[in-house]
Every structure is written in C-alpha cells, then in structure tokens.
Amino acid sequence: xxxxxxxxxxxxxxxxxxxxxxxxxxxxxxxxxxxxxxxxxxxxxxxxxxxxxxxxxxxxxxxxxxxxxxxxxxxxxxxxxxxxxxxxxxxxxxxxxxxxxxxxxxxxxxxxxxxxxxxxxxxxxxxxxxxxxxxxxxxxxxxxxxxxxxxxxxxxxxxxxxxxxxxxxxxxxxxxxxxxxxxxxxxxxxxxxxxxxxxxxxxxxxxxxxxxxxxxxxxxxxxxxxxxxxxxxxxxxxxxxxxxxxxxxxxxxxxxxxxxxxxxxx
Length: 266
Ligand SMILES: Cc1cc2nc3c(=O)[nH]c(=O)nc-3n(C[C@H](O)[C@H](O)[C@H](O)COP(=O)(O)OP(=O)(O)OC[C@H]3O[C@@H](n4cnc5c(N)ncnc54)[C@H](O)[C@@H]3O)c2cc1C
Hints:
With about 270 residues, the chain is of the alpha/beta class. The chain has a single domain, classed as HUPs (Rossmann fold), CATH 3.40.50. The chain is built from seven helices and eleven strands. β7 and β8 (about 155-160) form a beta hairpin. It is globular. The model has no long low-confidence stretch (mean pLDDT about 95).
C-alpha cells in the first residue's frame, strides 16, 4: 500500500506580498512555503504510515527549487519524492496542471489499496480545482474537504466539513481525498529525518519521461494547453469608512431602516 501526496510550493503570503506593475505576483522576491493544506495532507499520510508502515510518496510540479520543499517532506517522514518539471509544463492553468500531475501519478501507479491525497486549495491559485481534476482524470472516486480520515482495510471513512456541519462518507481505495487544516497539526521535521533526507530517492519527471503518456499532449499542457487565461489582475480599491450609528437597539434599527429606505434599498 502507498499514499501519494501532491504538494505545491507557494509564495509565503504571511509576510509582505510583492506585486509587479502588471498586477502579477512578484514570486522571485518572496519566500516560499509548502501550501498549508498540503502540509495537512502530508501529515495525514504520515499518520497512516505510522499505523500501517505504508510507503508515502510526495509529488510536486514546479521549477527546480521546489526540490527543497520535497526534501523537507522527506525530512518529515515521506519515503520518496518526485519533482515534475519541464519548460513544456510552464504556464499551465489548473486543467493542464492536473493533466500533468495525473500523468505523473499514473506513471508511479495507483494500485487497489492506494490513496492519493491533495490539499483542498493552494493559497496562491486558490481554485481548489486541481485535486478533483486529478481524480477525474485517473477515474478515482474523490472525497473533498476532509476534516478526519479513518482507515479500516480498504474502506476509508472521511468526515467532510460543510459550511454548516459535517458529512461522513465511506469510500473504497483507490481514491483521492482533499484535505483541510482542521484535519490535523502537521509535525515538524525531525533531526533524524533531516539527516536522512539526502539518502532518500528524489526523482525528476521531465517532459521526456512523460511525453508518451496518453494524458500528455501539446494541446493539453503548458500555456498553449491551458483553456483559461488571466484577463486582468488588480488590487480592489479600498472601501471608504462605514457609517457608525449610535444609540440603543430599537432606535439604531429605526435609523438604519430610514437610511436604507432613503437610498431605495428597502
Ligand atoms: C493562464 C494561467 C497561467 C498560469 N501560469 C502560471 C505560471 O506561469 N507559473 C505559476 O506558478 N503558476 C501559473 N498559473 C497558476 C497555476 O496554474 C495554478 O497555481 C495551478 O494550476 C494550480 O492551481 P491552484 O493554485 O488554484 O491549485 P488548487 O486547485 O487550489 O490546489 C489544490 C491542490 O492541488 C494540488 N496542487 C496544485 N498545484 C500543484 C502543483 N503544482 N504541484 C503539486 N500539487 C499541486 C495541491 O495538493 C493543492 O493543495 C497560471 C494560471 C493560469 C490560469
């Protein structure tokens, strides 16, 4: 049994966010981190590894420096890492990204008792599309928004977080699950883990390695294979200061209703 965890390197938006004059993120001037939800996905995989001894493989698509993030995942306890990286993959939107990641995961092989884990969404792209798209392309059942995962043989019980409650779903492996921060508290790298990280396998899947896969085609990868284009990106104008109404409850409500009526809102 193995668990494949798809992790993405993202700009660290907890510090100063640098924006280019054209509105795009100035990624080069910002620190990078592992996407937070992906850390929860990795922790979930490592917990199952602790209980069952299964293998954990981390995969990312990104530029060469993303290998540093993969080494950190290995230091946390993952067994193998795969960096999917090629000029041909650059500029991919979510459709093309999931196409390439699905091909890479398929190349690793998803067997009967395997699980694929993703974060719910990346803090830069923020679409939450890549996990579900990978599942579709690999014909895997998917469960999203996982706040708890329990494994009993080939049956996985997932508690999904909804806006106003929870839903419990049972799914059979092989399956894909997207994870949220409520799932767990990611562990730190251990000293032993850091020591071992450079002796663990880190493979690179370039265009040559994936080009014969049925999902890989010039029309479905990279900028040319991306059906979405960023039309415009901008910082919304700051809103003015709101109006504060003073007074007791009933009196304030009457004032508010009067203002809204004057503006023909009610
Ligand atoms: C036209 C267009 C051009 C773009 N060009 C670029 C570009 O040149 N450079 C660039 O960096 N971005 C680019 N992007 C953004 C990039 O394509 C998206 O960040 C990417 O498709 C993932 O989407 P997301 O961030 O919304 O991920 P989400 O769907 O929110 O991510 C959900 C989960 O999917 C997994 N995941 C997502 N992306 C990856 C990944 N790369 N590796 C491993 N797992 C992943 C993670 O588990 C993540 O938690 C472009 C987007 C568009 C629309």
